[in-house]
Write a structure and sequence with these properties.
It is built from eleven helices and 15 strands. With 406 residues, the chain is α/β, with parallel strands linked by helices. Strands 1-2-4-3-5-6-9-10 form an eight-stranded mixed sheet, with helices on both faces. Strands 11-12-13 form a three-stranded antiparallel sheet, with no helix packed on it. Strands 7-8 form a two-stranded antiparallel ribbon.
Length: 406
């Protein structure tokens, strides 16, 4: 069995991207990253069915909406093939930081072209799978051939793709044409599985031949028989997942040697009174142990941070980590980030009525030879850290009364 965890992470351009992490019930044997087809989303049938089946077979898989698609932030009109690759690299960084580095990349349609381009930049990846992928990213131009002249002449056009309208800019076309797949497929140094349907009417089978011939061994090809491009039949998507699992097992750890750390759901935070003081508690998180207490002014022993101080520490740590992930991806010279926080309860007046609210003052310091625009952008990213968003959006606390030995 498996389960789905809804998450968010910061993409390549600093936008917050929506994602779903499919996790097996037991410890995963490997971690994979799935890139969806052009203008589709993480919840398209093929992506959802394949990733869920892979999770049932022990492989944790992250699928996400590219910038400007689905539930992710950003404007599609400002994206291109390069930004898709940047989003993939950001997703890989997120997995590496929160779970484990991906060892497998899977890309469907244009997502297949994207994983081929991203693979050489990810040392952890040992195997790559393409499903109905074009040999050249510019192949997608055929979806809006009649609008290309207008795009070239005016700089953009509203294009209907799969029943939805998207704004395509000239920079999108230029970026697609700059990529030559054969330049990096041959130097990918990863095992490759090419999967393609001979009757694919969107991306012809010749694309699979060109990808296969450009790649060096180890490489494999699997025909998807009468499947359509989007793998709209459930049986086809499940077959793809079964083949990927069998093929990729050669490049992953044994099922008896789990590769991943314990997922968040199994890494519980446990807080227990120590009886050493009125409010003294021991906090255990995996291998880490802390003390929590209250100041002496309210009857505590001051042997550890107070609950609100732990809350602010979490916000502060999340803030600096989010900034660090962003500047490392951008290659900006931020030497150090630090955050000072203070919590208070204040009374405000709204529509003639007074009420008490919690207010956290957060002071962010950014060190390094950065220009004003870079500093401002890093500050904006700091405001998008996951803990900050949780505090702003609110969180539902579900409590259960259990036995003392539970």
């Amino acid at each position: 069995m498996s389960y789905t965890k809804k998450i968010e992470f910061v993409g390549g351009n600093g936008e917050v991207l929506a994602a779903a992490l499919e996790l097996p019930d037991d410890k995963p044997v490997a971690c994979a990253l799935f890139a969806h087809c052009f203008t589709c989303g993480k919840d398209v049938f093929a992506a959802s069915r394949i990733t869920k089946k892979l999770a049932q077979q022990g492989i944790a898989v992250l699928r996400f909406d590219f910038t400007g698609i689905g539930c992710s932030d950003g404007e599609f009109a400002n994206t291109n093939f390069t930004s898709n690759i940047d989003d993939l690299l950001a997703a890989a960084e997120f997995l590496t930081h929160e779970y484990d580095a991906p060892s497998l990349l899977i890309g469907h349609s244009l997502g297949g072209a994207a994983v081929l381009a991203a693979a050489p930049k990810l040392d952890s990846v040992r195997a790559v799978v393409t499903i109905g992928a074009p040999y050249e990213p510019s192949h997608v131009e055929h979806l809006f051939t009649c609008d290309i002249e207008e795009i070239e002449r005016t700089g953009n056009a509203r294009v209907a793709i799969a029943g939805r309208e998207f704004t395509i800019q000239k920079q999108f076309l230029d970026d697609l044409r700059d990529y030559q797949e054969h330049n990096y497929i041959a130097h990918m140094r990863k095992a490759l599985l090419v999967m393609h349907a001979p009757r694919d009417e969107v991306v012809g089978i010749d694309n699979a031949k060109d990808i296969f011939l450009a790649a060096k061994h180890p490489k494999s090809f699997v025909s998807l028989d009468d499947a359509d491009h989007l793998l709209s039949k459930r049986v086809d998507a499940l077959y793809v997942a079964d083949v990927i699992t069998a093929w990729a097992s050669r490049y992953m750890a044994s099922r008896h040697e789990p590769m991943l750390r314990v997922p968040d759901e199994d890494r519980m935070v446990e807080v227990t009174e120590t009886s050493e003081g009125k409010f003294t508690n021991q906090v255990t998180v995996g291998p880490h142990t802390f003390r929590a207490d209250e100041p002496e002014s309210v009857g505590g022993e001051d042997s550890g941070p107070s609950p609100y101080e732990f809350l602010m520490a979490g916000l502060g740590a999340c803030t600096t980590m989010t900034m660090r992930m962003y500047v490392e991806r951008k290659g900006w010279p931020m030497d150090r980030a630090s955050v000072r926080l203070k919590h208070e309860k204040v009374t405000i007046e709204e529509e003639g009525k007074k009420r008490r609210i919690d207010r956290i003052h957060r002071h962010i310091a950014i060190e390094g030879e950065l220009d004003d625009a870079q500093r401002q952008r890093i500050y904006e990213i700091a405001n998008r850290c996951p803990v900050h968003r949780t505090l702003e959006n609110g969180a539902e606390v579900e409590s259960h009364l259990i036995d003392s030995d539970g």
